[in-house]
Amino acid sequence: MGFVRALFLLAMVCVAAHAKDYPKEEGAKAEGPAAASGGGGGGSTHDVVKLGGKGDGKTDSTKAVNEAWTAACAGTGKQTIVVPKGDFLTGPLNFTGPCKGDIVIQLDGNLLGSTDLALFKSNWIEIMRLESLEISGKGKLDGQGAAVWSKNSCAKKYDCKILPNTLVLDFVNNGLISGISLVNPKFFHMNVFKSKNITIKDVTITAPGDSPNTDGIHMGDSSKISIIDTVIGTGDDCISIGPGTEGVNISGVTCGPGHGISVGSLGRYKDEKDVTDVTVKNCVLKKSTNGVRIKSYEDAASVLTASKFTYENIKMEDVANPIIIDMKYCPNKICTANGNSKVTIKDITFKNITGTSSTPEAVSLLCSDKLPCTGVTLNDIKVEYSGTNNKTMAVCKNAKGSATGCLKELSCF
To answer: How much is the pLDDT for 30?
Structure first.
């Protein structure tokens, strides 16, 4: 999403990373978070209930969860924060490193984000500056966003107030997120920024199709990001790949409802960096407004290149725009349509894309007349319009490349 850059201008507040040392006299009972969690230098478990959290869905458990983090971040070895079964209501959780050990968050229960926007300076759960992170379990991160979606004005103006994202990884290396669910965020479900070697696997992401700006997974200025065997249904992009991202592997993802698997928006802000080496394979898109999409602003403010993308073995089920490159992206008419694009799009391969389109235009390559798309390959594209009275078609403007094994109507070149 174009709005994401505002998220990265937030102040980065450092949180104390070391637990308080408690005196231990022989025979005396230790007190404080370290004692409640089990303490120890070789690895510890920190249970938010033992630290005062209550899983009744009503009691504010922010203090208990933050204490669990403080103790875990101070410990060496494997440090596990346990959220047991139950519903734990919290305000903002700022988990800041660097930490001494490897952090594991075992989410067996559910965390509920407070609906009081006055509590939030930025995001709900923000994890920063870690070298090893694992979040796993069968629990949920429930943003309870329906209560505040009416406060979102970003469709109308650039300088809108960004509502809290559910889970943000900033400057995190070597991360695994698996098994958990994210539901009904106030803004994005997950936002990955300046991070490396992150795997998101077997995750479920759910929000209504009409919920505003509820992107499933957004990433920017990051590298080596894998999203595997994940189910995403949202009111915006299922996955959005922002500027400065490279080495993305998306496999086994089911998307719908939502706006598809998108690269961009590109070019909205100055000094954006290139996007390269993106692979999307073995995915299914169901009744989404787009399938696989690359979008850049027509009045782009940055000079950048999007290149080396491969989309392969993708099934479309009544998708409105199954294959689309849109270099004239201008949402809600809040940009200038002057045609002065500075974004170069090249070396893009679409291979074995099958299924149905809910509109006649199964392929749309809408490139700039000043910077045409080059090196576009269409191989075995067999997506057919599912309606009546119109024929399947491709709309190709200022695109250069080759087509083989495609439906005759979709050859483009």
So the answer is: 34
